[in-house]
Design brief:
Organism: Haloarcula nitratireducens
Number of helices: 13
Low-confidence stretches: 1-8, 462-467
Oligomer: single chain
Pfam families: Phosphodiest (PF01663)
CATH class of the largest domain: Alpha Beta
GO molecular function: hydrolase activity
Number of domains: 2
CATH topology of the largest domain: Alkaline Phosphatase, subunit A
Mean pLDDT: 93
Distance between the termini: 22 Å
Protein name: Alkaline phosphatase family protein
InterPro entries: Alkaline_phosphatase_core_sf, Phosphodiest/P_Trfase
């Protein structure tokens, strides 16, 4: 094993983002392959950013910065000038993440299926980019890739990426299996020094059934088998002896039974504007609203006209399931004090989560409510994981049994480091998610701190110890 701090500590770094994985999933018989990889290395709790949801967590892991700095405060974005809400629609924009900075430093890099990969300068990238009509109906499956033509090759060999098994009522292991197949092809064709891979399988049954259920344990076994097959592939590769494997997760799950409807409360208070249409149900009119809640799992950003703040507080404070309402000081304390954040930020109790509905009678639901339509809905909708009675997606929030977003000791995800080129670390406290990017940078033997302006230092020290 090479020495810690040596610039040759790892010739190659693989990062597997096994979303939903926690430290107590190791050694229980459900994850023998992941457990074996980390037995001779490092495993610890990971403290994610608040909110612990996909985009803020991914951006923090890949930049070493908090949402207060990088500005990704939710899976969606609210434009205060236009009053428009957009979920999952950002491209690379001005982001510089670890794989882009490392590529600029001369390494070969790859990133597979992270959010906002379109336009990345990573040498290898694959991310879904289906061709849709103006109503968001799928016309043709496609992926955006670097280099051009890589998806065509993958599709010819392995068929199209199974989008309907990646999200929605049919979500299952096929999406993760295809991603890991693409990862093997990436290694065989392009041999990257850094490869960052998103493995989403646990997310589905974590939300459908909640943690600790037989269904979730089955999902653990499935994802461990898929990761194990990928690790076996790596062990046969000529660079295995120079490889360090990071296992990271973005969040753990809470068991939930209480949906919260902040937009209904704002509507009842006369703060949320709704247009009643015969053909399209009750459509929220965000630009005309004095307050609107952009919900995202267990966190909701409430955007409020200044003169409506007292009324919004009154409307929301007594809702069952809300643990806290953050304003200026609270947002600063949670490192989410960025202009993109809501004027009020709601955090749910552990057993509760936020649903975007503003109607109370199903017949008044907008047309997209029963569709699997992640771009039209102005809030995250886990009911899309269930078939509905009158459409593809359910309108029954009571079906959702797991959620995430709040940060507490019960739901901390995993950080692990293993493989033949991984240094030995003694970690006694939860790892700050912001430490992952500088740690990967140091494993690669490159200094990216000036490019990425890390908030915290790497885990690796000269004494190989983190206290």
């Amino acid at each position: 094993m090479t020495t810690v701090g040596d610039a040759t500590a790892a010739g190659r770094v693989i990062v597997l983002d096994v979303v939903g994985l926690q430290q107590d999933h190791l050694g229980n018989g459900n994850t023998p392959n992941i457990t074996a990889l980390l037995e001779g290395g490092t495993s610890a709790d990971l403290r994610p950013p608040m909110p612990a949801v996909t985009v803020p967590a991914q951006t923090t892991l890949a930049t070493g910065r908090s949402p207060a700095s990088h500005g990704d405060v939710a899976n969606g974005e609210y434009d205060r000038e236009t009053g428009k809400v957009a979920f999952w629609e950002r491209d690379r924009a001005d982001r510089t993440r670890l794989w882009e900075a490392a590529s600029e430093a001369g390494l070969t890099t790859g990133a597979l299926f992270f959010q906002h990969l379109i336009g990345t300068t990573a040498d290898v990238a694959v991310t879904p980019s289906p061709i849709e009509d103006e109503d968001n109906n799928l016309l043709e499956m496609n992926c955006w890739t670097n280099p051009d033509g890589f998806y065509d090759d993958l599709e010819a060999e392995y068929s199209h990426f199974p989008l309907h098994h990646y999200w929605g009522p049919g979500a299952n292991e096929r999406g993760s299996e295809w991603i890991l197949t693409a990862a093997r092809e990436t290694i065989e064709r392009y041999d990257p020094d850094l490869l960052w891979i998103y493995v989403p399988h646990l997310d589905y049954d974590g939300q459908r059934y909640g943690p600790g259920t037989p269904e979730f344990k089955n999902a653990l076994e499935t994802v461990d088998r898929l990761v194990g097959e990928f690790l076996d592939f790596l062990r046969e590769d000529s660079r295995w002896d120079a490889t360090a494997v990071n296992i990271v997760s973005e969040y753990g799950f809470h068991s939930v039974d209480t949906p919260i409807f902040p937009n209904r409360a704002l509507r009842d208070a006369g703060l949320l504007s709704v247009d009643n249409t015969d053909d399209h149900g009750d459509e929220v009119n965000v630009p005309q609203s004095r307050a609107f809640a952009m919900v995202d799992h267990q966190v909701a950003h409430v955007y409020v006209e200044p003169d409506a703040l007292p009324a919004a507080r009154r409307a929301l404070k007594n809702l069952d399931g809300i643990a806290s309402v953050l304003e200026t000081e609270g947002k600063e304390r949670h490192n989410i004090d960025h202009p993109n954040a809501g004027d009020l930020v709601l955090i749910a109790e552990p057993a509760a989560w936020f649903q975007y509905y503003w109607w109370t009678v199903e017949e008044n639901a907008p047309a997209y409510a029963t569709d699997m339509d992640i771009h039209s809905k102005p809030g995250y909708d886990p009911c899309e994981l269930f078939f509905g009675d009158s459409g593809l997606a359910s309108l029954d929030p009571s079906k959702v049994r797991g959620s995430h977003g709040r940060v507490d000791d019960e739901s901390l995800p995993l950080y692990g480091l293993g493989g033949p080129a991984a240094p030995e670390l003694q970690v006694t406290e939860p790892v700050d998610a912001r430490a992952v990017a500088p740690t990967v940078s140091e494993l690669l033997g490159i200094d990216l701190s000036s490019t990425l302006a890390f908030d915290v230092p790497a885990l690796i020290s000269q004494n190989s110890t983190v206290k």
